[in-house]
Amino acid sequence: MTDPARAPAPDTFDVIVLGAGPAGAAAAMTACRQGLTVALVDKACFPRAKLCGGGVTGRSARYFEEIFGTPLPPELIDTKTAVEFHAEDRPLGALPQIPPMHLTMRWHFDADLVARVLAAGATDLTGCRVAEIDTTTPALTLSDGRRLTARVLIGADGVNSPVARALFGRAYDPARIGFGLEVEAPAPPGNADRPLRIDFGAAQWGYGWDFPKSGSSTIGIGGVLSRNGDMKGAMAAYLDLLGQDPTQPVKGHHLPFGDFRRRPGRGAVLLAGDAAGLVDPITGEGIAYALKSGQLAAQAAARALAEDAPATALRRYRATLRPIHRAIRQARAIRLLLFAPLFRPAFLAAFRRSGHLRHLYMRLLAGEIEYPDLARATLRRLPAFLTGALQRGGTKPPPARDA
Question: What does the record give as EC number (predicted)?
């Protein structure tokens, strides 16, 4: 331990942001633009490797421009306007014209975000490991003994969030967490011109993806961990299906997958992005909610500090998160129709027949519609889903009775 008599003097900020991915960068940029002093802390130096499909949806692009004041830089993205859907080794249909779906390499994307935040005036503490988190002050002690204090601490430190562990004893519920496996495969000739590919059921209560980019293909599967006893086997099977080497090394990481924290913090300590569980449980999209929640967390911090009441930051933040929480709840309800064994065959049959449903799915990703719109379209087909599921299970629905 550092000798208290020789401990370095504290460095004090209005806001400390721990984690410099999309959620942390959005929080730090927003706080800087509010005129607050900001420290951006991350154990990694940027650019750094990050396991992620790299899908930047229309919703993400809109949030990016709102927060950083400029459109997505074209050099960071490959834009796709076509998609193929598959399930259980069978095609579900293709859409040749979809709302633009952008693909990025997180190595470049996150480094660009960090550079923007530092140019806006944040103190650069990337490449600094945290030894201790004090959620009461709040404060961080770095591994070199330096102590940072803040009026508000924003934990944007991922699904394994040390800030969440310091607050609640654990970062996530292991019974509800998701898990993903991924490879960055070499790009075959013409790769950049291939459509997106999404495979429902490549993992249980999840899906697989093949995102072709100019320099590589990001291929992965993700699903609820407790429902997948052999994720590595499922990944090998998916790679083989795509004509890829099933023995190539894969990387894995946990996914919140819709298990959001209803109370994302405590007082002057807030959680954003994956640390708050803000990942869509159907699409697996996390970048959009990361950007938006980081922005909302910093806005709540700024309002609390303007009234010299940092302990009210969480209350303010929770109020603005309600639309995101509501959307995730709606997605979890719809997820039953997509992934539950009883309903999945009927849903996939309807998805195969209905170009309208496929378009709605992609419009949802683009941010053109919200889950209530998808829910209405899905629920209109619910009687057919139920009848088909019951008949396949050998049970006929009860006869109608006169009133």
Answer: 1.-.-.-
